[in-house]
C-alpha cells in the first residue's frame, strides 16, 4: 500500500489484528441485514468483524461467515478475526464458560480471536439482558471484576478465546485488572485514516454496501502532519455512550474523568 500503513496490527501475544473491521452495533435494516453486510464486507476485503452477545446479532454474523466459507471466498473461518463481548449478566465466574458457549454456538465457531468484557457493570445472571425487579429497577450484582477476568483467562486456557480484553473500563478499573491479571488485556482502542496512522484499530459500522466499501477505502491516501495536528486539536472530551441507567452501580465507569 502506498501509505506505508500495515494491514495488520500485532497484539502483545503476536496475534495479527486487521487494522479495519466491520462494526455491527445497533444496525438497522431488519432480519438478515447483518448477515448480508458481513458477506459483502468479506467479499471486498474485510477480515475482521466486531459483534456482541447483547447486540443480538452473533447468529447473523456466524451465518455470514459460514456463507463465505461455503462459497469458497475464505478457506477457513480463522481467516476472519471475530471480536465479541461478554455481557453484564455473564460476570459470575462460575457460569462464564457455559454462558460464553452460547456465543460460540451463535457464531458457529469453537474459538473467537478476541473476547472483551463489554461493561464493568454486573447485572443479575440469567437470559434477560436487562433484568428488572417488580419495581422496574435494574437488578445489579456486584461481582469482583478481577474474578470475572480470571474466568476470562480460563476461556483462553480452554481454547475458546485467543485474546481477551476490556471495553468501557475507566483508568482505575483497568489498573486493577492489570495488577491481578495472569493474561494481560489486549490494548485496543476503537474509533478512520487519522486513527490508523496512529496505529489504532478501527471498527466502522454500516450495513449499507456503499458505506462499507467507502469505510474500507482508507489505504489509498494519507493525511499530512498538519492535517493530523488539526484533527488532534479537536475537542475530545464528550462521551457518546454513557449508559445513565447504570450510574447507580458501584462499578459505573464514567463517574471518573477517564
TrEMBL record:
Q: Which GO terms describe its molecular function?
A: oxidoreductase activity
* Top-level division of the source organism's lineage: Eukaryota
InterPro entries reported for this sequence: AKR (IPR020471), Aldo/ket_reductase_CS (IPR018170), NAD(P)_OxRdtase_dom_sf (IPR036812), NADP_OxRdtase_dom (IPR023210)
Positions that bind substrate: 118
Q: Where is this site: Lowers pKa of active site Tyr?
A: 85
Native organism taxonomy: Eukaryota, Metazoa, Spiralia, Lophotrochozoa, Mollusca
Q: Which organism is it from?
A: Mytilus galloprovincialis
The cross-references to PROSITE patterns, in alphabetical order and at most eight, read:
ALDOKETO_REDUCTASE_1, ALDOKETO_REDUCTASE_3
Supply the name of the protein. Answer: NADP-dependent oxidoreductase domain-containing protein
Question: Which sites are catalytic?
Answer: 55 (proton donor)
Q: Where is the NADP-dependent oxidoreductase domain?
A: 20-190
